[in-house]
UniProtKB/TrEMBL annotation:
UniProtKB keywords: Signal
Presence of keyword Signal: yes
Taxonomic superkingdom: Bacteria
Species lineage: Bacteria, Bacillati, Actinomycetota, Actinomycetes, Micrococcales
Protein name in the entry: ABC transporter substrate-binding protein
Leader sequence segment: 1-24
Pfam (any one): SBP_bac_3
Residue span, Solute-binding protein family 3/N-terminal domain: 59-284
Classification via InterPro entries: Solute-binding_3/MltF_N
Amino acid sequence: MRVRYVLPALAAAAALMLTGCVDNSTPATSGTDASSAPTIEKDDAAAALVPADVADTGTLVIGTDPTYAPNEFKNEAGDPIGWGIEIASGIAAKLGLEPEFQVAKFDNIIPSVTGGKADIGSSSFTDTIERQQQVDFVNYYTAGIQWASAAGKDVDPDNACGLKVAVQATTFEDTDEVPAKSDACVAAGKPPIDKLKFDTQDAATNAVVLGQADALSADSPVTLYAIAQTGDKLQLAGETFDVAPYGMVVAKGSELTVAVQAALQSMVDDGSYQAILDEWGVADGGIDEITINAGANG
């Protein structure tokens, strides 16, 4: 998977580059705006699948952690934006519901869904077998893992023993990928990877820019966006690997799962899904068939 992004051109973005830091929570440009977003109409067949207790509210409560640009982040007004946010809003529109975004820390979203506080979770969740023990996933995208290092500093993700690697806390990179690499280092008699956890992705990115970490590990669209945001401060480290599906989180066994699947498939079929991905420059991870719990097949 190779994704390219348009470099930010506004003055505020230039200021970020001059300071050498990136703040993805209040970026200078969203990559798209409401005027360019596709109009998405209700799909009666998909809406008919919505459980009555959700349909009666007229809203789809969506848990998200908007700290993972360009997928989910905040505009200058503090509102959630990003291509993942637009996909989730499209699901609501297809189901004849109004989207209501419930901002939460990443590790609180699944408990919110299982506890009934949110209807779905949309926050770049990698669909894994472990997570499927708690929730179901409606798969809508594929992304790999991509490392980045400071410009001029070559880092090999497969030979990072003893290095400091920044990650966003509770992401797949934090819980699975980097720990597995570190364990392999120890098993080979080498020093472990010093994993540095941060609450937000922009903090993890800044750790590399400021020399506090040797590299960062994040999902491929996120890493490529971070490189674009920081100008010449970061570079790719190795190739994209471990491509896996993203999934919308739905309560285990809920009837809402098939409704969300039908809504997303309707977006694929009418072209609104592709239009969103194209606007944000992330079309390489798009899929043609919306599935459920595809992570079990990985």
